Amino acid sequence: MNHPTLPAGRIRPAPDELLRQLEQRFGASFTTARAVCAQHGRDESPFDAPPPAGVVFCACTEDVADAVRLCGAFATPVIAFGAGSSLEGQLLAVQGGISLDLTRMDRVLEIVAEDMLVRVQPGVTRLRLNDELRHSGLFFPIDPGADATIGGMTATRASGTNAVRYGTMRENVLALTVVLADGTVLRTGTRARKSSAGYDLTRLFVGSEGTLGIITEVTLRLHPQPQAVAAAVCSFASVAQAVDCTIELIQSAIPIARCELMDANAVRAVNAHDRLDLPEQPLLLMEFHGSAEGVREQAQATQQIAAAHGGSDFAWADTPEERTRLWKARHHAYLSALQTRPGCRCVTTDTCVPISRLAESINDTVAEADAAGLPYFLVGHVGDGNFHVGYLIDPQLPAERELAEKLNARLVRRALRLGGTCSGEHGVGLHKQEFLREEAGDAAIALMRTLKQALDPAGILNPGKIFR
Amino acid sequence: MNHPTLPAGRIRPAPDELLRQLEQRFGASFTTARAVCAQHGRDESPFDAPPPAGVVFCACTEDVADAVRLCGAFATPVIAFGAGSSLEGQLLAVQGGISLDLTRMDRVLEIVAEDMLVRVQPGVTRLRLNDELRHSGLFFPIDPGADATIGGMTATRASGTNAVRYGTMRENVLALTVVLADGTVLRTGTRARKSSAGYDLTRLFVGSEGTLGIITEVTLRLHPQPQAVAAAVCSFASVAQAVDCTIELIQSAIPIARCELMDANAVRAVNAHDRLDLPEQPLLLMEFHGSAEGVREQAQATQQIAAAHGGSDFAWADTPEERTRLWKARHHAYLSALQTRPGCRCVTTDTCVPISRLAESINDTVAEADAAGLPYFLVGHVGDGNFHVGYLIDPQLPAERELAEKLNARLVRRALRLGGTCSGEHGVGLHKQEFLREEAGDAAIALMRTLKQALDPAGILNPGKIFR
Predict the structure, then answer these.
(1) In terms of domains, do B213 and B142 share one?
(2) pTM exceeds cut of 0.90
(3) Complex ipTM
(4) Tens of pLDDT along A411-450?
(5) What is the CATH number for B297?
(6) In degrees rounded to 5, what are phi and psi of residue B373?
């Protein structure tokens, strides 16, 4: 079921001769097996597309470069594949082509603790990276919820729960290795924390969703594991109160590490899924990092602000185990919500607005969703002004999808009016293309096209994404 | 006197017809007066070039767009001009052309305190911006020393003393208005703190040194004025000890706001220029921001680390006036040093290395400079791994310039070997082009050229800079 408004593009068939040459070059690491192709033609978006014509399991940058060169010779698209957790259809083969599976490139190549950086292959997932960093005194904070790969997170400019304190992939990628459309291997950036040496090629690729090059190595900034961590849950009678509390918190410049909103629907879903007994009201899930004294200061100031907005006394998660349980539940919100309506799919929104406009942005959204009567849940990295509504639609009922898309469009346009963006962290993919045009304007889209044309004249790199 | 190794380029004369049309469009705001052109053809670099053929004093984005369009029609270069404080020859009219003076575009357009951001015209200087922010509870931290314009700082991806805590222009520019080579007015970014909506056009222009577009409006992130500020001076017997102290300090993740090194030559120069009585030894000039308790914690931890590396007891600058006096002196280091050798010019280095390699980077540099016998001084944003040696050369003695360049080349190549960059904050301009090639590699330079060609096919935007 392809959504009618999706820019599906024309399928370019992969010529037999290309498949033959891929098989010759990659042997058993290349397959056209139906099940494998199907698995590589599906992400967490609510969209369907035909599967890729084949999958190359790449083991190194040279494999990627060779695959890109071979596909380029036949004008056949290439699409990088990591965890398959993209939410906007980024990895769907809407114009056909070959999927380059990078999950075998999963080595942590070098931990440079004395410079607080790490060099990884793109298939490393964020949980495994942090597992390998466990004894280094450092951690990698970017946490989009899903156990995404670092390559995928780089390509979508991901962020998540810790971004309010530690920034996004934009701020935490130091250097890249990228395979360009002609197979050239490019290195960007250095190990220095800052540089004014020429164009910022690193940030050209961060967030380019595989359309300008394929990322085969990433050097990331790390952060010291905080001396002290405290997590707390604070419940509110309404989403509006929780949002007002967040706005004051951020405006007070308390260096909170995480500030997450869940509405009552999301809380109910995770209670059921993760057997928790959180009060089934809107809540803020917060975490403070710092010295013991610093954490105490932050928590105290925050509790005062929360109380002034009708927030409950903080319920503390004191042990690492309790914190992990809580954050796991938060990360399961999406899956938990899907289970509240068996067989449903989820249309997810991703706006981000300046913090002062967050109340207007969320309150009107909640009112519209309630009035529409479609099942939904709301979670948000509200400290950043970013939140997600998931409309749970029955894929058999086109009217539900249409309604969800209508609510989404209203929400996005409100965010744009408030000075915000259509995508805080999920990227554009297939689903936000028209919104991107409204947000960025024709001159910006024209420039993006100029860049795409300059870097990928034959249009083989993940075509049909970001813009048509 | 043009330095022999400078890529000077071919001068393209500005046709009389262009001058006539500029005069018609801009009236008294366009001039070809020799003194004005001369002033606009000179920056703080040690290089000379012929002055531009004329200067347009632009008052708004439309002025810039019209000037660019007119010059484009005659294939005549345009070069943006702000404070004239660039250090690498960025504003020199090495291929002729028209200087666009943006200093009349000096309005702070909108302070949005509740979202901690500000929208400014490019001609606003950082001191005036902070002056206007004085009562907002916010400040703009990026501080390259010179009272540069925000437009120039954006174009060179500037940083300076506060970057160790607050980041550089890369992290603090939210949105831009840019005039492209064909006169199109482009808007990039939004007011949201983060976004995954399409290519990062904002960061494409940050650091592009006027070669991809001319920045006519900037939206900046602001930061809360810290509750408490403390500044301290700590002297060391050797530069090496001060550097070792800095490395441990950064590796301990103390969130120091400023951590500046001055060698004994620099201290002597500022003592003389600013009538201070700092001990004429290598010193660290540090500043701590936070809550009163947080600042105490940071300072205490830092004093312990310093003492372990032979540092003196901290001399505190307790009042805002004392702090201002101290930082002014630091910012005067460059001018003060110039005055120690009347008539000299300064060849400035700008490498930045990963913090663990800073000792090797600085100590070998000091040994080489001492051995060479050329007057020099050393200052550094060492918390970032960035430092500057200024070799004070007699412009009448080509041998001195050659020696300075030889020392510079050795220093840069060492930084590159250590995983660093040839430019931490000054940009490439004319002077670092060959080093950029060594640092970034041929594939990266080819890609930069591709971008330049795609955005400015006629090569009218500040030609001859960054790469030939």
Answers:
(1) yes
(2) yes
(3) 0.96
(4) 999 999 999 999 999 999 999 999 999 999 999 999 999 9
(5) 3.40.462.10
(6) 80, 5
